[in-house]
Automatic annotation (TrEMBL), chain A:
One of its GO terms (molecular function) is methyltransferase activity. Signal peptide: none annotated. It comes from Ephemerocybe angulata. One of its GO terms (biological process) is methylation. PANTHER family: ARGININE-HYDROXYLASE NDUFAF5, MITOCHONDRIAL. This is S-adenosyl-L-methionine-dependent methyltransferase. It comes from the Eukaryota. Gene3D superfamilies: Vaccinia Virus protein VP39 (3.40.50.150).
UniProtKB/TrEMBL annotation, chain B:
One of its GO terms (biological process) is mitochondrial respiratory chain complex I assembly. PANTHER family: NADH DEHYDROGENASE [UBIQUINONE] 1 ALPHA SUBCOMPLEX ASSEMBLY FACTOR 8. InterPro entries: NDUFAF8. It comes from the Eukaryota. This is CHCH domain-containing protein. GO terms for cellular component: mitochondrion. The lineage of its organism: Eukaryota, Fungi, Dikarya, Basidiomycota, Agaricomycotina.
Length: 351, 67
């Protein structure tokens, strides 16, 4: 029986087309758009599967080829991290992916990194040897006197339920490089991050937001409107830059720093962009997305993309806008503004 | 286009569509794109259906041929 079953499965598998641009819907029961709260925008289960599949393609080679954008942002985030004049025993890399940011850590800045990622295959894509001098996880480190080695610990878990994996008031620093744009309840996750931090703990994050992929968004919208007479979500709703500092403040962080950065990447056409996004595990995961997009609409979108946004040399640009945020958990040791009216110097005399 | 046929062909259908829509039928695609861009602030269904029909005819013709 197992043999015939396997045969059936295989013949079934061969009938499935080798790829889909639109992700297969795989909503678990809790992501029913009619029964969930206001914050349910993304299908987290679908996102986990997309990431697993992206890393499984060609033994991870496809996924490594499209590391360019995450590696670039990780380096820019590392610059901000190095500006913080403090060294840490343990940092939590929230939504680490295969460890784009953790890979860059140096042992004089952080002795150990804990990577927390929802997709198991993504989390374990890189062997421990890829990380700064580490040979094989925690056991081996003690043999090597552990001085110039960044230890790596990996936890597979959903960053939306951070406090299920991490204890309250346990972290010196929480770092998140390009994962928060798939989080449903961003205010809630920021509160959980603050809760997981020790007093005076650091949160440093980078997330896609603002105008990210607006060219793709508008091209698909125009194509759908003209071809089919309607709209459906193909590119995620993005967090506005201006909202981030409000959200950080609301979550109880102090001494906020928020800045934005833009990376423009050129592609030969819309098709390469979409293929790369898929290999990054960044396919559409909005709840209520269409399971399939017609070839007509795709061809139309490709033509519109090129005419509306295309570069002079025939390539097309894709914008990635990144929001960097720094916040600290309040502590008594932090500098605070003086009491109102306590100034001794009359500004009239100074100016 | 049967599924088994698609699996055994070297280039996947979507890759062929990508190629033909950007290379083989680039001229028709450009005409269609210009039609949309001319009034993209007020798009209605089938606004450029004549241009798209030519684009699609070209696509259909080139998708038929085996590379």
């Amino acid at each position: 029986m197992p043999l015939s079953l396997r045969h059936q499965l295989r013949s079934l598998a061969s009938r499935v087309p080798s790829r889909n641009y639109a992700a297969v819907s795989s909503s678990p029961s809790q992501t029913n758009p009619y029964t969930v709260g206001p914050y349910q925008v993304f299908d987290r289960n679908a996102k986990r599967l997309q990431r697993d599949r992206a890393v499984a393609r060609d033994g991870g080679d496809r996924s490594r080829t499209v590391d360019y954008i995450r590696d670039e942002i990780a380096e820019r985030m590392m610059e901000r991290f190095m500006d913080i004049k403090r060294s840490f025993n343990t940092v939590l890399d929230l939504g680490s992916g295969p460890g784009h940011f953790s890979k860059l850590l140096e042992s004089d800045k952080a002795k150990k990194t804990v990577m927390l990622e929802m997709s198991g295959k993504t989390l374990h894509r890189e062997p421990d040897s890829e990380f700064e001098g580490t040979s094989s996880g925690i056991q081996r480190v003690s043999n090597l006197n552990g001085q110039d080695i960044v230890q790596v610990e990996r936890i597979q878990g959903d960053e939306e339920n951070l406090l299920q994996h991490i204890e309250r008031e346990s972290q010196e620093a929480v770092l998140s490089c390009l994962s928060l744009h798939w989080v449903n309840d961003l205010p809630g996750v920021l509160v959980q991050i603050r809760e997981s931090l020790k007093p005076d703990g650091l949160f440093l994050g980078a997330m896609f937001g603002g105008d990210t992929l607006f060219e793709l968004r508008t091209s698909l919208q125009l194509a759908e409107a003209e071809r089919e007479g309607g709209l459906s979500p193909h590119v995620s709703p993005m967090t506005d830059t201006r909202d981030i500092s409000n959200l950080l403040g609301r979550a109880g962080f102090t001494l906020l720093t928020v800045d934005t950065d833009e990376v423009k990447v050129g592609y030969p056409s819309m098709w390469e962009l979409m293929e790369d996004l898929q290999d990054m595990g960044e396919s559409n995961a909005v709840i209520g997305r269409r399971a399939r997009i017609s070839p007509d609409t795709l061809a139309a979108a490709s033509a519109i993309y090129k005419e509306l946004h295309g570069n002079e040399d025939g390539s097309i640009p894709a914008t990635f806008q990144v929001i960097y945020m720094i916040g600290w958990k309040p502590a008594d040791s932090q500098p605070k503004p003086l009491e109102r009216g306590s100034g001794k110097v009359n500004l009239k005399e100074v100016l | 286009m049967s599924a088994t046929g698609a699996a055994s062909k070297p280039a996947r259908p979507i890759a062929r569509l990508a190629y033909h829509s950007t290379v083989t039928c680039a001229a028709q695609a450009s005409v269609y794109g210009k039609c949309i861009t001319a009034s993209y602030l007020d798009v209605s269904k089938d606004m450029c259906s004549a241009e798209f029909a030519k684009f699609k005819a070209c696509l259909r013709e080139s998708m038929k041929k085996r590379q």
